[in-house]
Please model this.
Amino acid sequence: MGSIQVENYDVIIIGAGLSGVCSLYHLRKRFPTWRIRVLEAADSVGGTWYWNRYPGARVDTEALSYAFSFDRELQDEWYWKDSFAAQADVLQYIERVSEKHNLAKDIQFETRIKSAHWQDSDRTWLFTDKKGAQYQTRFFISCMGFLSSPSLPAISGIETFKGEAFHTSRWPKNLNISRDFANKRVGVIGTGATGIQTITACSNEPSVQSVTVFQRTPNWSAPLRNEEITLEQMKEHWKNYDALWQLCHETPSCFLHQADPRKSLEVTPEERLALWEDIYAKPGFAKWLGTFSDTYTNREANKLYSDFMANKIRGRVHDPKVAESLIPKCHGFGTRRVPLESGYFEVYNKPNVHLVDLQQTPIEKITEKGIQTSDGKHHDLDVLIYATGFDAITGAFSAIEWHAKEGHPLLGSSGTKQGEKAVWVDHRPQTYLGLTACSMPNMFMVLGPHQPFGNAPRTIEHAVSVVLDLLQYCKDNNYSYIEPTQQAVDEWTEHVVECSKGSLSNEVDSWMTGVNKNIKGKTARSVARYSGSAVEYRRRCAECKEAGWKGFTFAKTPRTSNI
Ligand code: NA7
Model:
């Protein structure tokens, strides 16, 4: 038997989505002599925008702000056709960035990592992929995404369905619904952001025979208001990019929207209504993020706004019973991520679109021919779409077998025997600045747990800049080892939890609070993202740097090293 060849690198990046592409671009520029490799499971770049090619997939962040700011030339020639770009256009943009900078030469596609071992003797990580190939690296950057590990519903009989079944995040490349779903009865499970886009697209496809929506929890959703951008308009936008980046820099989640500083209960009912109507008519997340400042911390304020939104739904759905089923009763508007829609509620006015309210009639099982609900009804289906979301935040990490420092697993239980304790017990991440973790030396995370999410390219660019500064510090000082101190991790994690207090979102089950009932061990809420503002997050990162990277332990010269 031949010995396994191990490839050696200075930095390995896992994932070639927006985070991986951005990391690679900057690493190459900053450290031109370093050996850098990106390992990517897919056969091309794109990440989220590669995998999520389900019908109707579209970004609900303004496309103009959903791009990299580092390539001025590309920025000044890229023509976004829609104010909110379709999946294919975002993917094309990422492909263009990759092509323009010849990034693919450093990306190894169709490579899924199976295990990762910290090797303390020479302070390196050893990765093994599913085919058995091995890669050794001094540093690695996780760019695996926080919504990249799809989860199927834990429903009995799921394996028995004989029709076609798809998870939205594993949508076949060449599937065309007008051709492939013609005259078919389509069922969709899930009404999150993905389900709402998929349901709308399938319902508006004239060749589809029927669409049956299986809704467990209704979601608040509001109009996206996408519009085409003309070339003339785009030329104007090209002149204004600096102002646009600056605005994103100033808002709490790097979107183009800022909350109204007034409090809901301090203004008159007329003033309240005026603002709500105004933002309802605006595009994008204005109606989520542009409302009164107390909407997501004050129960009464949230109830008032939710009532306003409920009436909008009632006004759009003809059958009052269906409308009531579509209005969330157990959580207030905006306390979960608000899906934006383009005619979603109106699809329920079509005679061939049926809503099955699973709170009234839960699914009993999936059968060979469809879905059986508790009222004894069998819903016959030819196609079943699982818009059931992701093993969010920690899911991509769970898919790899980690042997962290001293052999500890990354995820798992607190263990009973000595040495079994996981680094992140019960899926509760413990990080320093959301970028690093104890017992995981030389690892950095982009869009990792405890970072502010929001407008992804904006937060990615910042996280990458901090990671690069840390690597620069290591290089300048000949450090081969970096790990946050336990104290820094404890303090940061406490700060993250502290920031989340008082937020109504924390009282609701969703991927944002780490809950996924389909996954064992993910039924309790946790604080998985930094809900202090992005502005404050950047300030804290800068403060850490100014203090000589306070909170990190560095070490020189590996004991032995062959890289
Ligand atoms: P989400 O937002 O997690 O939505 C998943 C949906 O699937 C949600 O409606 C779930 O209902 C439903 N679901 C999950 N499991 C089941 C079972 N077993 N039975 C019935 N219904 C089920 O995922 P998305 O992909 O829509 O969006 C994720 C993010 O991606 C989105 O927020 C954007 O940021 C991009 P539940 O609410 O759990 O009752």
Summary: The mean pLDDT is 95.
